[in-house]
């Protein structure tokens, strides 16, 4: 099967790493099903990619904090006669307030968006991939998955879940021609920090820590095509992840406590 006959489902596709994956796969001839909350941004991107690369681009506006969203997305794919051969689980966010000061609705939404929804989407697309004997799944984790725990934040725990589950899924599914990769970027030049309200703090970080989304996507896509279960893109991120892994549990806890973002408020 040629790439032009394959379809990629990308969540969080309206900007950042998701939109960059869309551009990269469209250039390779993949059909696309783009999912995000912002329908206008999706339509604009879909039109652009169809004009540039002649590929079919469908859009589906959905909020993945809604438990009904994953099934609705796959129902739409079925209605459009699209078999999902590539899944890019990219949609995500990070909480901005301490756990005890955050309403449960917001915490539940964060878990639904980055734990339950991507896991359900994998479960929904895998049977078809197994039938066809080919599939590629990229789950967006983070270099934070290797870091010490951070007080009051669900983010590191969630990204650790994504990292570990992606490896387990790859072990199970690789014999069926399906590769699963946890893509673990560090600081990336996207709208993420604007949405989270942390742009000022992010801009004070050294330039060497940052990557462009294109570099993240190129390395991540190469990794899943080669069957690598974990991809940490960029030299600085690789060094950081390697340095953090050997930390004993107690030292990791102390490091996370020392750099607690909520210790002053």
UniProtKB/TrEMBL annotation:
Similarity section: Belongs to the short-chain dehydrogenases/reductases (SDR) family.
Pfam families for the chain: adh_short
Residue ranges constituting the Ketoreductase domain according to the UniProt record: 6-164
Enzyme Commission identifier(s): 1.-.-.-
Keywords recorded for this protein, A-Z: Oxidoreductase
Residues forming coiled coils: none
Protein name stated in the entry: SDR family NAD(P)-dependent oxidoreductase
Matching CDD domains: SDR_c
Alphabetized InterPro entries for the sequence: KR_dom, NAD(P)-bd_dom_sf, SDR_fam
GO terms, molecular function: oxidoreductase activity
SUPFAM superfamilies hit by this protein: NAD(P)-binding Rossmann-fold domains
């Amino acid at each position: 099967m040629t790439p032009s006959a394959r379809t990629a489902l990308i969540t969080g596709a309206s900007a950042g790493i998701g939109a960059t994956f869309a551009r990269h796969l469209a250039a390779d001839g993949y059909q696309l099903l783009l999912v995000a909350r912002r329908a206008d941004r999706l339509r604009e991107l879909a039109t652009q990619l169809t004009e540039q690369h002649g590929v079919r681009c469908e859009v589906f506006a959905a909020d993945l904090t809604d438990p009904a969203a994953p099934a609705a997305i796959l129902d739409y794919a079925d209605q459009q006669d699209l078999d999902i051969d590539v899944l890019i689980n990219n949609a995500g966010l990070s909480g901005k307030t301490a756990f005890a000061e955050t309403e449960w609705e917001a915490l539940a939404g964060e878990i639904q968006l980055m734990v339950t929804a991507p896991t359900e989407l994998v479960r929904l697309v895998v049977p078809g991939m197994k039938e066809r004997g080919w599939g590629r799944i990229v789950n967006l984790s983070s270099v934070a998955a290797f870091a010490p725990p951070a007080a009051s934040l669900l983010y590191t725990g969630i990204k650790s879940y994504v990292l570990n589950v992606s490896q387990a899924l790859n072990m199970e599914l690789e014999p069926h021609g399906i590769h699963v990769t946890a893509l673990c970027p560090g600081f990336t030049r996207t709208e993420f920090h604007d949405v989270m309200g942390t742009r000022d703090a992010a801009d004070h970080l050294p330039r060497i820590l940052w990557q462009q989304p294109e570099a993240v996507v190129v390395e991540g896509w190469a990794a899943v095509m080669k069957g690598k279960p974990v991809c940490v893109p960029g030299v600085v991120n690789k060094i950081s992840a390697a340095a953090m892994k050997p930390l004993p549990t107690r030292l990791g806890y102390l490091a996370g406590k020392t750099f607690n973002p909520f210790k002053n408020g």
